[in-house]
């Protein structure tokens, strides 16, 4: 967590400078549009990998930005490092050039192969239930690190002047109900019948319920964080063109699901917990829903007709 905290400060500094780089770009000195965005993705990836691989604790890293996993010190048979890290270094990065919140998501497992040997794919393809820690960083109006080690969820806010994290949100609990739904509804024509029925339910009001508010940033971390604190549901379903949805099981869904569960919230792939899925490949995608516990249950009841 120390290493993650240090890498967060570096990435935070670079993300905050992105607007300044843009100013220079506009006067023609640097071609930033598109390129800067890609640079920040790669910079975040590089920063987390370099920072974590220098610690005597991580034996392997898998990143959304890398084709395959990285084995650390694989030729050093004295390597006693026990943990593997899976990371989405800069999630929602298309939001950077419009100054909207982005995030980092990470997940930590104990390796399953013997200590001292090079890591293998089995060390990374573990069920989400095996996570020993997971968290995210939100680079927002303030920068926060939110994580769990399986004993509740705590949120730390970065004091940028001092470079220190403060426990600003101890023992976060997600409200059991909420009134916000977060989805890219532009794809609705390609969603299943059950999901479209649920979206109609979200927008309908009656004596017991006002229509839900639609809130969608397009950065998973920002949408999840808001719903975690205020109550709500985030949806990234499968569609006619994305049969498995868009989000990655190992870098996005599992860590967020672990945090949701630890905060008393709900999470699902539409049928059951994503934490119980046996992964088959590093960049596997799954439909993903997470939010207030009762909202996720309600959604699952609508999705039953899709079977
Ligand atoms: P990325 O990892 O390429 O940034 O994609 C993940 C992001 C999520 O943060 C966000 O919720 C989703 O993609 C938005 O997708 P869409 O533009 O289809 O709504
Ligand atoms: Mg991502």
From TrEMBL:
Entry's localization field: Cytoplasm
Stored Pfam families: FBPase, FBPase_C
A GO molecular-function annotation: fructose 1,6-bisphosphate 1-phosphatase activity
UniProt pathway annotation: Carbohydrate biosynthesis; Calvin cycle
SUPFAM superfamilies named among the record's database cross-references: Carbohydrate phosphatase (SSF56655)
Classification via InterPro entries: FBPase_C_dom (IPR044015), FBPase_class-1 (IPR000146), FBPase_N (IPR033391), FBPtase (IPR028343), Fructose_bisphosphatase_AS (IPR020548)
UniProt keyword terms in alphabetical order: Carbohydrate metabolism, Cytoplasm, Hydrolase, Magnesium, Metal-binding
EC number(s) given by UniProt: 3.1.3.11
Catalytic reactions of this protein: beta-D-fructose 1,6-bisphosphate + H2O = beta-D-fructose 6-phosphate + phosphate
Domain Fructose-1-6-bisphosphatase class 1 C-terminal span(s) in chain numbering: 175-303
Cofactor note: Binds 2 magnesium ions per subunit.
Binding residue positions for substrate: 91-94, 184, 216, 234-236, 246
Binding site for Mg(2+) 2: 88, 91, 252
Residues holding Mg(2+) 1: 64, 88, 90
Requisite cofactors: Mg(2+)
Positions of the Fructose-1-6-bisphosphatase class I N-terminal domain: 2-170
Record's subunit section: Homotetramer.
Similarity annotation: Belongs to the FBPase class 1 family.
Protein's name according to its UniProt entry: Fructose-1,6-bisphosphatase class 1
Organism: Lacihabitans lacunae
Name of encoding gene: fbp
């Amino acid at each position: 967590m120390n290493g993650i905290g240090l890498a967060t400060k570096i990435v935070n500094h670079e993300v905050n400078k992105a607007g300044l780089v843009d100013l220079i770009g506009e006067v023609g000195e640097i071609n930033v549009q598109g390129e800067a965005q890609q640079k920040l993705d790669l910079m975040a990836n590089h920063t987390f990998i370099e920072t974590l691989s220098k610690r005597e604790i991580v034996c392997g890293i898998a990143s959304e930005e890398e084709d395959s996993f990285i084995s650390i010190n694989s030729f050093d048979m004295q390597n006693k490092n026990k943990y593997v890290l899976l990371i989405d270094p800069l999630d929602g990065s298309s939001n950077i050039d419009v100054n909207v919140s982005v995030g980092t998501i990470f997940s930590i497992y104990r390796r399953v192969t013997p200590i001292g040997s090079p890591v293998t794919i089995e060390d990374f393809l573990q069920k989400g239930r095996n996570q020993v820690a997971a968290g995210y960083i939100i680079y927002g109006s303030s920068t926060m690190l939110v994580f769990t080690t399986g004993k509740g969820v705590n949120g730390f806010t970065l004091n940028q002047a001092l470079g220190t994290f403060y426990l600003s949100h101890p023992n976060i609990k997600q409200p059991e109900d909420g009134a916000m739904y977060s989805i890219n509804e532009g794809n609705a024509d390609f969603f299943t019948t059950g999901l479209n029925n649920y979206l109609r339910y979200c927008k309908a009001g009656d004596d017991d319920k006002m229509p839900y508010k639609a809130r969608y940033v397009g950065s998973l971390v920002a949408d999840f964080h808001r719903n975690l604190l205020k109550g709500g549901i985030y949806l990234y379903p499968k569609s006619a063109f994305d049969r498995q949805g868009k989000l990655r099981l190992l870098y996005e869904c599992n860590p967020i699901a672990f945090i949701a569960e630890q905060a008393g919230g709900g999470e699902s792939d539409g049928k059951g917990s994503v934490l119980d899925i046996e992964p088959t490949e590093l960049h596997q995608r799954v439909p993903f829903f997470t939010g207030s516990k009762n909202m996720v249950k309600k959604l699952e009841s609508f999705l039953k007709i899709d079977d």
